[in-house]
Amino acid sequence: MRAPGSRNELAGRARAGLATMTAVTVVLYVVQLVNMATLGLLSRTLGIRPRDVGNLPDILTSPLVHDSAGWGHLLANTLPLFIFGFLAFLAGLRQFLTAVALSWLASGIGVWLFGGSLLGYPSVTVGASGVIFGLFGFLLVRGFLNRSWWQILLALVLFGVYGSVLFGALPTVGRGISWQAHLFGLAGGVVAAVLLRPRGRLAQ
């Protein structure tokens, strides 16, 4: 009786995850349409400007906005965000929200503190890349912390397919890419996995 219940629960999470990530994707594309129609107004007003105290609230909005010059930035982020978000959602709503929140905040705070044009990077940072790196970090390490063989297997598969993106968290990444967002988002996802690890029993 336990296995069917588990399958039903997983199926319910899968449906909810698909619905959630589809809704997130729609929101991002609507925001992009508005941003392009207003010639980048959202990028200029909702992106992160490092060390500008008045800009701190934009830590909460910058992942929703992408480069207004075209669709390339958003298109590059869409598939990994959808996949990683969906897989994180399979662990449950609480784990998904915690991983997203910590990745979102850590990425934004890292950019606000350490980003900026002095290092040759844009003075305004936008995009969901930090959240993507955070979800990736969460998925990579949670299985080892949970001692769950299927989560470890998933982590190995994801690393084999997407592992090269981790170079994007290095300061040597190309000009115009915020390695700070990637690095601190990744750290936020790892912290989420640590905080959400099972205590007092082993994961099944």
Summarize, please.
GO terms for molecular function: peptidase activity. With 204 residues, the protein is an all-alpha fold.
Task: Describe the overall structure.
The structure is a single chain. The chain is mainly α and 204 residues long. Helices cover 64% and strands 0% of the residues. The chain contains 7 helices and no strands. The protein has helices at residues 2-37, 41-46, 72-89, 93-114, 129-146, 149-162, 179-195. Helix 4 packs across helix 5 (129-146) and helix 5 (129-146) packs antiparallel against helix 6 (149-162). Mean pLDDT is 89; it is low at 1-5.
Give the topology, please:
Elements: H1 2-37, H2 41-46, H3 72-89, H4 93-114, H5 129-146, H6 149-162, H7 179-195
Helix pairs in contact: 1-3, 3-5, 4-5, 4-7, 5-6, 5-7
- Write down the overall mean pLDDT: 89
* Assembly classification: single chain
Helix-strand makeup class: mainly alpha
Strand proportion, as a percent range, falls in under 5%
Number of helices: 7
Principal-axes shape call: globular
**From N to C, what is the helix and strand string?**
HHHHHHH
Can you give the helix content as a percent range?
A: 55-70%
Unreliable segments of 5+ consecutive residues: 1-5
What can be said about the biggest beta sheet?
none
CA-based gyration radius: 17 Å
C-alpha end-to-end distance: 16 Å
Total beta-strand segments: 0
Organism: Sinomonas cellulolyticus
Domain Peptidase S54 rhomboid: 58-198
Subcellular location: Membrane
GO molecular function, one term: peptidase activity
